[in-house]
Amino acid sequence: MLPTTRKDAAGFHASPNTAVLCLRFIARRYLVFGVTGFVFFSLLLRTLYVRREAAVEVSPFPEIDQTTPRWAGLRLPPLYGQYHQYEHRLPQHHWNAASHATEPNMFWIPGHSKGSGWGNIMQEVLLNAFLAHQANRAFVFYNYTWNDNHAEDYADYSGKPIPSRVPLTALIRGPIVGGAWPAGDPAPLAVSEEYWHHICDDRAHVVPRVDVHDHIPSWYVGAVTTGWVDKLRALDNVQCVEAGGDGGPPYSWVTFGDKDAMHEVWPEYRKSPILTHFAHSALVELAFDNNREVFAPTAVLEPPLSAVPLALPAAARYAEIPGLLVLHVRRGDYAGHCEHLARWSSTYLAYNTLPELPDRFDPPQGGSWGENTPENVEIYMAHCFPGVAQIVRRVAEVAATEAARGLKHVYVMTNADKEWIAELKEALEGMGRWESVSASRDLVLNWEQKYVAQAVDMLIAQRAQVFIGNGWSSLTGNAVLMRMANGFRPDSTRFW
């Protein structure tokens, strides 16, 4: 309220000067109005500016390619920039250090496999990291690479663009990609390929592959690991050691394709922190959580996987999901691959022939070098590329075993088309025993998860109560490896 009286210097009420008081009132009121108006106008301009910018820059498909004729009009895949940044900022990377002399010894394998599915790459990553750990060297981890030309961000896969390089941290976590080793393990932390090039490019000591492999008795994992570890330990005074690319990486397709290649080293390998503290990436685990109700509805009090502490060993983090049966069924051009396996009388892969597993495949007699009989080819196809009726029959056999007691849900990890999946689902539902039947194409994945979907399937498979896989598949093999390392009962892992 406007005051009408005021006191003089002696403290008595003086006659009011109404004109002066009115002027003061009006001045104060206009000052308030002016400041308020200025703030309001500033906020209005800011709001209009931001909205205008958003309208110009935001697009529902910001990666639509408008320049490359090869993929014109297609949405380009993600490049996972935030994961590359995370790897760059690992605390063991001392980019600006005046000297790197006090940093740990490192081991880099530039000839690592490229241009293959995640199953093939992962089986090699695990063993390469195991080798570096055994030699007490920092493992130099690398991208999951389809195209190593750094001038090209995208590669072509069946006429569609895919990322040329996916950072490993978009797929996995743990010591392999720079995470901490379990308490008491003195091994040095892994570093990125980028960091290796920063500090080692001009002083790396290259060990030609023949210097090791010409002196080992076989291509088995144990022999290869021992040969390289002995060589690396002899170079303990050399910080930067690189495996020569002549003849390929330390572990080749010959190793992974031999049914006996893992037997000698398996007791040690299964206890290595490479496996006991392996973890899938947050991106993969989030996809698992978001789709849990699709493939195996959760118990009321079960926390999401992404809420489980990362420090837990893999056996506790990736415990069995009771009631879940997972089937791995390859389709598409895999038929030609199965025929090729038959012609060469191939055995199951090394990861799929671990000593505890109950199912074995011995190539039938009668084949010759590069050829086989029609009868033998049929045997191979039943195990490698089974039809719907064969799948249902095998599921019924396995479901009757003790390990399968209580199964309720079926999840089919597959690259098959929608029509074939619908046919298989109908046949499985016709068995009259499943509460739900789902498949890979039922998963809801965001744009980044779409390009790591194989890892999502692998995570589901490794946690199933029972898993039936393909003995010639590396994707199956990695799920089998994790199941066995995490203590799942051997008879819960089967093959077609």
Task: Give the overall form.
Answer: globular
Number of helices: 19
Mean pLDDT: 88
| Helix and strand composition category | alpha/beta
Strand content is 5-15%
Helix content: 25-40%
Give the biggest beta sheet. Answer: 5 strands, parallel
Gyration radius, rounded: 31 Å
Alpha carbon gap, first and last residue: 90 Å
Strand order of the largest sheet: 10-4-3-12-11
Would you identify the regions where 5 or more consecutive residues have pLDDT less than 50? Answer: 1-33, 38-62
Number of strands: 18
Describe this structure in words.
The protein has 496 residues and is an alpha/beta fold. It is built from 19 helices and 18 strands. It has helices at 18-57, 81-88, 118-134, 193-200, 210-213, 221-233, 253-256, 266-269, 273-276, 282-290, 292-295, 314-317, 334-343, 374-384, 388-399, 418-429, 447-450, 453-463, 474-485; strands at 6-7, 13-14, 106-108, 138-141, 144-145, 154-157, 160-163, 165-166, 172-173, 191-192, 205-207, 240-243, 279-280, 321-329, 409-414, 436-439, 464-469, 493-495. The strands form six sheets. It has a five-stranded parallel β-sheet with strand order 10-4-3-12-11. Strands 16-15-14-17-18 form a five-stranded parallel β-sheet, sandwiched between helices. Strand 1 (6-7) and strand 2 (13-14) form a beta hairpin. Helix 15 packs across helix 16 (418-429) and helix 18 packs across helix 19.
In short:
With 496 residues, the protein is of the alpha/beta class. It is built from 19 helices and 18 strands.
